[in-house]
Amino acid sequence: MPMFRFTTYLLWLTYIISASVTAATLTVDVTDAQGNMLSDSVVELISTAPLEATSTTEITLPATTHYEMRQQDRVFYPFVLAVPQGANVDFPNLDRTRHHVYSFSEAKQFELKLYVGTTADPITFDKAGLVAIGCNIHDYMQAFIYVAKSPYFSVSDASGKIQLTDVPPGEYQVKIWHPWQIVAPASSSIILNDGANQLALSVDIEHQNKPSSPPSGFGASDHASHMMGQHAK
To answer: What letter does residue 184 receive in the DSSP assignment?
Structure first.
């Protein structure tokens, strides 16, 4: 192999190795005040670096990015959806029953009037914040969309875990939110180093049952619940 080719190869390999070790991974365990693992919590990392020192000040979504909150068995899925600011979200109705999807939240107000199947266009969530979703026909159908202004966010799974990957090392503000939180948790900060990082967070919530599909023919008014938790305004 000619020397210049070998040198180029070494430089390329060095770049690949250095790039791979300058990314942080953060594993988060989320619990309630009693120490029980907590699903449906959103954790968002916001860089504390000055904007001019941040390589990306806006989230750029890949062309293949696709988000949806479907209506199935007269329930919204997922119960909590987290998307980046500027994301398009579809609301397919997989039921034979028509639904009327709406939100009056400050971060996004919209209506999708009675329909079955898919709507013509997705809804664009162009403002960061919390969006409470409801159905004007079935009061118990409730869900939430968390619109993040940072590209580093996720929702805790059934075991209360979140894993964020490919995060640039540095200092971040940690925000956490849950639909049943009693008060908004105070934000904290974390310094992420190269490689694996761990974090434990706790949220004081008022335990409730998620909206569930009622028996066939069951009246929506009889199934209405107080599951909105802390509403998104």
So the answer is: P
How far apart are the C-alpha atoms of 92 and 75, rounded to whole Å?
12
Report how far apart the first and last C-alpha atoms of the chain are (Å, whole number).
65
Residue 41 CB contacts under 8 Å (≥ 6 apart), including other chains: 30, 155, 156, 160, 162, 176, 177, 178, 201, 203
- Rounded-to-5 percentages of helix, strand, coil across the chain: 10, 45, 45
- What's the per-residue H, E or C state across 99-143? EEEEEEECCEEEEEEEECECCCCCEEECCCEEEEEEECCCCCCEE
107-121: per-residue pLDDT in tens? 999 999 988 888 768
What pTM, to 2 d.p., does this model score? 0.80
Q: Find, among 192, 226, 188, 231, the residue nearest to 207 by Cα.
A: 226
Distance CA 149, CA 155 (A): 15
Give the C-alpha separation, 183 to 205, whole Å.
8
Residue type, 160: G
Dihedral of alpha carbons 49, 50, 56, 61, sign: positive
**Beta-strand relationship, 67-68 and 87-90:** parallel
